[in-house]
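Quick question, first post here. What does this chain look like in 3D?
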Amino acid sequence: MSHAPLAAYPALRLRRLRQSDWIRRLVRETVLTPADLIWSMVVHEGEGQVPVPSMPGVARLSVKECAKAAIEARRLGIPAIAVFPHIDGSKKDAIGSKAADPDGVVARAVKAMKDAAPEVGIMCDVALDPFTDHGHDGLIENGKILNDATIERLVAQGLMQAAAGADILAPSDMMDGRCGILRQALESAGYQDMMIMSYAAKYASAFYGPYRDAIGSGKLGSGPVENPGDKKTYQMDYANSDEALREVALDIAEGADMVMVKPGLPYLDIVQRVVDAFHVPTFAFQVSGEYAMMKAATQNGWLDEDRAILESLGAFKRAGAAGIITYFAPQAAKLLGA
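> Answer (accepted):
Ran it through. Tokens below.
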């Protein structure tokens, strides 16, 4: 066997920098820490914890349990929590009336978490789908999702969340112009310091199914005949990449402080393009479907769970994400602190 290539280039042995753990850590290009994580959490109106069947290890938490979780986040070094609500189906209607309820479960959870651990940031989802009986993110008329009428409802919701003590508002609806109108409303109401993390590039994805289970979302296409069977008229087409840059540019111009790409791992190319193009804090959401797939694989013994969690989260950092919203946050933080 000829050894000419190595003889000709004796310096080209890249394995030198991989031979021991200490050197791998020393030359590592991307580092993941608990400070890169936002804990995705579902709050419900009852007591205790209610397991989510499609998301093993995830439970809906009561307001009291959310407060305990905020203390745990602080202990683990997780900087922020993203809260999503589950309300009783009898309280839902076509316009999501309960979305702006100042005495609702979101407002109570935010207040409880900020009282328990004020150092932990709280991000609220500005969206109607947990509160509508049809499961859409907007108001519907003659089978069409109404853009401007939906924004009016979203602004009322966002102002309620700001009054409750939220630190970040995260509009996830994908209505055109909602960041600008929300920013104007916040300024007028005296919330000049309120941060907006826009779901700027949110795709109409198949990976949201377990989340809909977690929040008890209405079934798309069921009930009234005008209920569309999917969200493709307002969320992005997964085939598009340039369009994501246009969406991000609009939201930044309208006053978003940070932007998000959703889902996560199937869209790392979008994360990298956004980071390279705009140089603004860009986050990615490791969504429920990604969580459920990894959990199923690890429970069947097909993947090493701890390694898979850290590798997947590290991929977001490698793509340039400032941080990751994930249901794995507490488990990952414990692994990183070990």
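The chain has one domain: 30-337.
The two ends are 46 Å apart (CA to CA).
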